[in-house]
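Work Package 3 (structural annotation) set out to generate three-dimensional models for the target panel prioritized at the project kickoff. During this period the team completed the workflow that converts sequence records into discrete structure tokens, so that structures can be stored uniformly alongside our sequence database. As a representative example, we reproduce one entry of 336 residues exactly as it appears in the project archive.
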Amino acid sequence: MTGIRVTRIRGRTRVALKKAMITKAQFAAELSARGEFKRQEDAFRDWVSADGSTLYPAVGGRYHLYVSLACPWASRTLIARHLQGLEEIVGVTVVDPVRDERGWAFRDGPGYSRDPVNGFSFLKEAYEATDPAWDGRVTVPVLWDTETRRIVNNSEDDICRMFDGAFRPLAQHHIELFPNDIARQQGELSAFIYDQVNNGVYKAGFASRQRAYEHACRALFNALDQLELRLMRSRYLFGDRIVESDWRLFCTLIRFDIVYYIHFKCSLHRILDYPNLQGYLMDLYQQPGIAETVNFEHIKHHYYMTHDAINPMRIVPIGPVLDLTGAHGREKLSAI
């Protein structure tokens, strides 16, 4: 809306075009009255079981994973699927990274494709098939059951645990992502990483008021400072073994300098400015098969072209240039 105000200054008429400022939150339904981003809860939490104790037994070829390579939550499930050697057991389809008002879409393009399982045009069709009354935000990842033709689970935490547990008898190999001997400590650290870092960047980026943004941003960097100190003494979060908590942190760190630092205004420091976090990021990125789960073009095009409330011109930056393949020196900590 534009208002016109006519004023006379020193005998001359000035026409001032005063634009009423219109602000639009990215996800208005997930904002508090104080402008804080409050993420919606995952809606579908059924469980795949190894022993047939649930409606969804672990069977090869029955389940399909819908993901976006741009989304850190979905990327973590893709990493877990790879680490457990489940590529031949659980299929995967990648959605178009650019999401419009209709939601995540299945289209043919570089690194993404149409839906070969159901022929869906949009992921919301999977949600509607599972719950015809669904009116929330459609999110990835989605674990789909081809037999009952419904969503089993859309929680990345649950899916990673199922890949680590229920699907273990079908896995080509197994990496212990949730070791029993550190279950309590890992649960506490993962909760901290989720709240302050994984979701912390979104609480800063989607805040609709200055105070809410500043509070979230300071909490985020306080958490990164703590993790930087922890990684000064330990190669990974729990010594020399890589667990799910590491991949949880990795999926945010890998996106930080190219989108969160700029797009979400998480700009106190880059990850590049943290020697231990940067080396740790490079170490994890260089683990076998992990680089193939990272697509920087998908990441940048999703954030900069989808969040039009934050970036209305939809300009995608050409940088930064990241070198994650060089020497990181983290292996020296294993000898301490």
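Strands lie at 2-9, 12-19, 48-49, 56-57, 63-67, 91-94, 142-145, 150-153.
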